[in-house]
């Protein structure tokens, strides 16, 4: 099935896509973020289960494996999707917005009553290796008091301190603590990058999320593409090197895919 926002069927706790035959694959957002961060836009992914492995809760293991396989530039110029005017989706005090910009950049804000998290902000342009160096190692997170409720619903069965940051009261239960001082908001950036890559091509624009999650990210893509005046598909050859860097012009595949 195509990794497309049009195939998203559930976005309550993670991003799940399905095809017309009812085949579902869940938790695709970290892998999609890694593909974006490595410049991959032509890949066939085969799995033998209903969920992408959670690995350590971040995109770093996928980035590592892609780099181990290597990447090949194909002799095809990639398309990008340019944001032409702002589009915003809201629910309560949360919103997700796309607006015009050169290149691709992200800003995110979160607010939690937890003293460990509190208010955090993160903003950056994601090019020239910024995803790998600043975002990909940020892990998914949750609260200890939520674990029993999730497992009673048949969720988070494999969840552990090996694949998530777990907060209990004013403490982080993981040995070694956080990988980044603001790892929580950086993981929200990671999730958003993965969700937005379901647009079907790289976006040229700025994403701003405030308390947004998977559901609102996907609603934003639906609202964005429903407004035909808000976007334009164009050849990356016109602007790619100036906006993304010299290595972003051609379609890229993992080397193992054509070995």
Write the layout of secondary structure elements.
Elements: E1 8-10, E2 16-18, E3 24-25, H1 29-37, H2 60-69, E4 71-77, E5 79-83, E6 87-91, E7 94-99, E8 104-111, E9 119-125, H3 130-135, E10 141-143, H4 144-152, E11 165-168, E12 171-172, H5 183-196, E13 202-210, H6 214-226, E14 231-235, H7 240-244, E15 250-254
Parallel strand pairs: 5-13, 8-13, 10-11
Antiparallel strand pairs: 1-2, 2-3, 4-15, 5-14, 6-7, 7-13, 8-9, 11-12
Folded structure, characterized:
- The protein is of the alpha+beta class and 259 residues long.
- It has a single domain, classed as lpxc deacetylase, domain 2 (lpxc deacetylase, domain 1, 2-Layer Sandwich), CATH 3.30.1700.
- It is built from seven helices and 15 strands.
- Strands 5, 6, 7, 8, 9, 13 and 14 form a seven-stranded mixed sheet that branches. A three-stranded antiparallel sheet has the order 1-2-3, with no helix packed on it.
- Helix 1 packs across helix 2.
- The protein is globular.
- The two termini are 23 Å apart.
- The relative contact order is 0.25.
- The model has no long low-confidence stretch (mean pLDDT 90).
| Number of spatially distinct domains | 1
Question: Which CATH class applies here?
Answer: Alpha Beta
Give a quick account of the main beta sheet: strands, pairing sense, barrel closure.
7 strands, mixed
Question: CATH superfamily, please?
Answer: lpxc deacetylase, domain 2
- The CATH topology is what? lpxc deacetylase, domain 1
**Cα separation of the termini:** 23 Å
Q: State the helical fraction.
A: 25-40%
């Amino acid at each position: 099935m195509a990794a497309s926002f049009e195939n998203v069927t559930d976005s309550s706790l993670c991003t799940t896509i399905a095809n017309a035959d009812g085949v579902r694959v869940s938790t695709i957002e970290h892998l999609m973020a890694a593909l974006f961060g490595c410049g991959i836009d032509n890949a066939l992914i085969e799995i033998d289960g209903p969920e992408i492995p959670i690995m350590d809760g971040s995109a770093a293991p996928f980035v590592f494996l892609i780099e181990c396989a290597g990447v090949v530039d194909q002799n095809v110029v990639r398309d990008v999707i340019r944001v032409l005017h702002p589009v915003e989706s809201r629910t309560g005090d949360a919103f997700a917005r796309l607006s015009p910009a050169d290149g691709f950049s992200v800003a995110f804000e979160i607010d939690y009553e937890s003293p460990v998290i509190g208010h955090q902000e993160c903003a950056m342009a994601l090019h020239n290796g910024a995803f790998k160096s600043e975002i990909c190692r940020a892990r998914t997170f949750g609260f200890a008091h939520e674990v029993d409720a999730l497992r009673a619903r048949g969720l988070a069965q494999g969840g552990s301190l090996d694949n998530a940051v777990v907060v209990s009261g004013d403490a982080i239960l993981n040995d070694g603590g956080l990988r980044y001082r603001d790892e929580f908001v950086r993981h929200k950036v990671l999730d958003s990058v993965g969700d937005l890559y379901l647009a079907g091509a790289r976006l040229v624009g700025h994403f701003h999320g405030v308390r947004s999650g998977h559901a609102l990210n996907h609603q934003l893509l639906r609202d964005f593409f429903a407004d035909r005046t808000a976007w334009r598909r164009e050849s990356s050859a016109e602007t790619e090197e100036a906006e993304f860097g010299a290595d972003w012009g051609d379609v890229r595949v993992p080397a193992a895919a054509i070995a």
